[in-house]
Amino acid sequence: MSTLPNCPACNSEFTYQDGNLYMCPECAHEWSAIAGADDEADESLIKADANGNPLQDGDTVTVIKDLKIKGSSSVVKVGTKVKNIRLVDGDHDIDCKIDGIGPMKLKSEFVKKV
What we know:
By secondary structure, the protein is mainly β. The protein folds into two domains: 1-40, N-terminal domain of TfIIb; 60-113, SH3 type barrels (Roll). It is built from one helix and eleven strands; from the N terminus they run βββαββββββββ. It has one helix spanning 37-45; strands spanning 16-18, 21-23, 30-32, 61-63, 67-68, 75-76, 81-82, 86-87, 94-98, 102-106, 111-113. It has a three-stranded antiparallel β-sheet. A three-stranded antiparallel β-sheet has the order 7-4-11, with no helix packed on it. A three-stranded antiparallel β-sheet has the order 8-9-10, with no helix packed on it. It is elongated, with a radius of gyration of 16 Å. The N and C termini lie far apart (45 Å). Residues 49-114 form the Protein YjdM C-terminal domain. It holds the Pfam family YjdM. This is Alkylphosphonate utilization protein. Belongs to the YjdM family.
């Protein structure tokens, strides 16, 4: 029987510890093994790019992977610069406007901070 806590994001029981972090292999959520409950709540509000750099409203980011646009034949190409992002809650946690495409929501795991 494992004494490790379930994942707070997806409630998976398959968590493991890596140094000072707990990790979930199912949803890739990471949280501190030594932080209290208040710290975990603050940590969930902080969004990070693909390299782990914290993102803020108004940042400029670059897309690191070709992203197909659902319901369209258009693609957001690698290297597309997105200015003045806005962080929101949810699966797609970046709200932005891309030149030539329009308003869009992106996942922070597919961008890097400029």
